Amino acid sequence: MVETLMDKIFEDIVETIREPLLVQDQNLRVVLSNLSFYEFFKVTPEETVGQLIYELGNKQWDIPKLRELLEIILPENNPFNNYEVEHDFATIGKRTMLLNARQIERAMGKELIILLAIEDITERNRIEEERNQLVIDLQRALANVKQLTGLLPICSHCKKIRDDKGYWNQIEVYINQHSEATFSHGICQECIKKYYPDLELYDD
Questions:
Q1: Which fold has domain 2-122?
Q2: Considering the entire predicted model, what is its pTM?
Q3: CA-to-CA distance for 176 and 163, rounded, in angstroms?
């Protein structure tokens, strides 16, 4: 009776976990899973319980690195945490999963079981990659830009700018020296009329 009650409590705990969770025996055969696993991987309990993990979903869990983790690391009683696996799953497509596993006794004196928790971090990784790319793009942009800031002393008549050493510079010379901007010279229509009154103008 006690064991039955403990089994029921254990099953309830497994079911309340939000992430997909697999419970396997020492032979890596699934003995229990939760609703999150079935819904996320689009499989049924009949297709899952009693199967070797590597046979699940058209052998979509037959991943070499997962074999190493489950068959070599765990038997030495070494849990693994936050192990990232990228795989093209038959039912849900290419995903990046974060795996966590523990080997525990289901009850005192009973056989060891393996808990494998699975978290889909595909979207999180995508957002992280986009953010990193944005940072790189901004750094590149900043590396190519010199920004003029502060108070610029400018002559109200000739429009020259005084530099830090007290010298007066043509405005285009000063800006060229303190930014990435370059100048080309022309003459506006108002200045043509003022300085070249005899020059004929043709409006477009």
A1: Beta-Lactamase (3.30.450)
A2: 0.60
A3: 13
